[in-house]
Fold:
Amino acid sequence: MERLAINQITVKGWSFEETVRGLARHGIGWLGAWVGPVEEYGAERAAALLRDHGVRVSSMCRAGFFTGKNPDGGGLDHDANRRAVELTAAIGGDVLYLVSGGVRDDLDLERSRAAVVEGIAELVPFAASAGVRLAVEPLHPMMCAERSVTVTLDQALDIVEEFEPAHVGLAVDTYNVWWDPGLGASLARAGGRIIGYQVCDWLVPQPHPTFGRGLPGDGAIDLPSITRAVGAAGFTGPIEVEIFNERVWAADPDDVLAAVVAGFPRHVLP
Structure:
C-alpha cells in the first residue's frame, strides 16, 4: 500500500487538516493536494501538518488554463500560476498538474493549442527555480471546448517533448485516456516522461461529464492493465486515486478511504 495516494478532491467534505489526519489514520502516506485548501490553511502550517503525520505530497492541482478559457470564468492568470508553484514547493511537493484551458472565443483550436506551449514556456523558468516539475495532463475529449484543448496522450507528449525532462513531464489520468486506441503505444512512447498517475473508474452509464468518476472497480476501465503499462514506461511513483462524484462526496470520507484501501491491490495494481 506504499504507493497509494489520495487526491484531496476524493474526500471533498473534509478540510485540509481533516484530510491529512484521515490519511494517516488509514495508513495512506501520500496526498494529492489542491491549491485552494492549502492556501486557506496556510502553506507553512500545511507543511508542518504533513510532516507531523508522515504524509508526503504526490502532486498539486492545479495551474494552467494557458488559452485564457477557464470554466470558472477566469482568464489566464500568470500570478495564480506562479503562486501555485510556490505553494507546491512550500509543502514539499515537486509536481504541479497543468490543465491546458479550453478553446478561446477569439482563437481557433490550433491557435489555442499553440497558446498552451507558449504559456508553459513562460512558467518553466519560475517552476524550475522552485524545484517544481510541471505535469501536462490531457483531459477527455468531451472537455475540449471548456477545459482542455489537450485531449490525448500523444498531444500532451508533443508538448512535453518541447521541454527538458527535468522541468516538464506527463500526467496520466485513467478517466481521460482509457478509451484511446493508441493508449499502449502512447505510454510506450512516454518512457521516463511520466511524472504523475491518477486512477478512477468510468461508470456506466455516466452520471455527469465532470463528476462521473467511480471508485476503482466500480466501472469499465481495466485499471491493472494501464498500471502495468505505466510501470513498463518507467513510472514507479505514487498512484493517486482522484474521484469527482457527488455520491462519493456525500458518503462518510472514512468509509470512502476504507473502500479505496481495500480495493486498491485488486482493482488498481497489476
The domain at 4-267 is CATH 3.20.20.150 (TIM Barrel).
